[in-house]
Amino acid sequence: MKKLNMLYTGLVIAATMAGVAPAYAQMRIEISGVGSNQIPVAVAGFANEGVSPQKISEIIKADLERSGAFKIIDAGVITDVNNIDYSGWKAKGADALVVGTVDALADGRYDVRYKLLDTVKQSRISNLDKAVTAQFTRLSAHLIADDVFFKLTGIRGAFSTRIAYVKQEGRNYQLMVADADGENEQLALRSNEPIISPSWSPDGTKVAYVSFEQKKPVVYVQNLITRARTVVANEKGSNSAPAWAPSGNKLAVALSKDGHTQVYTVNADGSNLRRASNSAGIDTEPQWSADGESIYFTSDRSGGPQIYRMNPDGGDAKRVTFGGSYNISPRISADGKTLAYISRRDGNFQLYVLDLASGQEQRLSDTTSDESPSFAPNGKYIMYATQAGSRKSLAVVSVDGRVKQRLTTQAGNIKEPTWGPFMQ
């Protein structure tokens, strides 16, 4: 497992941006469905964790349960983590056991120790020992959950990643950044004009977005650490839909500077603007593939909106979606195998995924007003915005459609989600 200090960058961003203390999101998470072949894991309360500002074991438990990959067995509190009754825990149905301790240090930090134990082989699978400051105790819990997820599934966990989204209350628009579970919410930008289309930079230190503060859509890039902003696209007409190239040094955007909207590429500092698509229709919503070899985008060149793929330098575009007459908002998984998008069928806007190799598509949502899908960096979950009664909220679904989560807040609409990258 990567050490905690290798991921401090993400929490430094959270601690420094907006210059204010965390404003907790008060998100309510509802989980339905379970993953196939759930792994039974017992999670014990960490000895002495009451000294910590965060209850480490409860965050770990919530992360693992939310994933749908585990059947969580409550193990109470285990104070002696060096003498484990392996056969007893195996008899209770646990294949693995999570134990740990928290100690307050004289310098104000907290020593967080954890072990992941195999009850079948009666051996240790993994362990972590790290001293953290109070502001990093939540991160330590997410990283432990990441480690458990990886060690038991072989897939990298994404609990320690961040999400960004727009919260709207009347004419007040806020670009927010939070932990992947919706907690530890931070303000990145506040405006009386709409903010749309946030997009994370590959290194997780910047967010591109569209703001209407100049009474027209303009594309900005904001550094989340320094809070410095750069105008990336402010051409005549509409400037919209920024998407980062995997290199982190340029973006794709949709501009109407030459009449109808087309896809362009531009350096992250606003220089070297180049047109990529060239059609008589509207080309918009560009998204780079993780290898940087393709740009997926929405175009109505065939009559109705469908998703196409082209080289970043332009050239012939190939149509990708054929199911249904209205497909928009493409998002491509990190391994390049799965395309997520919003499809309108029978008057409903719903989240679909397409297996690019087989051409098989699957509807993932049971809601009817979905928008803005975004893959988790491990490719196993998709976050999107949807309607919950009279309010817009966020939802998460596993790519197999088995596990569904709904994240709602007590006030305002939350929409336009984008899932941040793994922090290196």
TrEMBL record:
Single GO cellular component term: periplasmic space
Instruction: Give the main location.
Output: periplasm
Membrane spanning residue stretches: none
Which SUPFAM superfamilies has this protein been placed in? TolB, N-terminal domain, Tricorn protease N-terminal domain
Q: One Pfam family from the UniProt entry?
A: TolB_N
Any GO BP: protein import
| Compartments where located | Periplasm
Domain TolB N-terminal, residue spans: 27-124
Belongs to which family?
Belongs to the TolB family.
Name of the molecule in the record: Tol-Pal system protein TolB
Q: Which organism is it from?
A: Duganella radicis
The organism that produces this protein has a lineage beginning with: Bacteria, Pseudomonadati, Pseudomonadota, Betaproteobacteria, Burkholderiales
The UniProt gene name for this protein comes to tolB
